[in-house]
Amino acid sequence: MTDIKVEYLACPIRQVVSRFGDKWSLLVLYAINESENGVMRFNELRRHMSDCSQKMLSQTLKNLERNNLLHREVYPEVPPRVEYSLTETGKSLMPSIASLVEWAKRHFDDVVAKQIL
To answer: What is the mean pLDDT of residues 11-33?
Structure first.
């Protein structure tokens, strides 16, 4: 097994971005932020991200909740109603994600179109 350098463990980029840097996490955070009231239920997210499997979406939501970016609210109803919203930490991340989205729109042809051809 390879030894991990101590400076890697203390690196904010490695430690923080690895918690939400995958494509599904970014899409979930963005979708909830852009929703009408900042709250979405599981099936709303599934419809919004139809190419994400149910299992992957479930894992992504659990991961974002565990990393304090999402809040999961369970209502004591039958059937139970579960809603997801951004935590204050998640909300503070949104300007950076919005900047990334704008950058992606501006540079889509430079980055993606050349790969398709």
So the answer is: 83
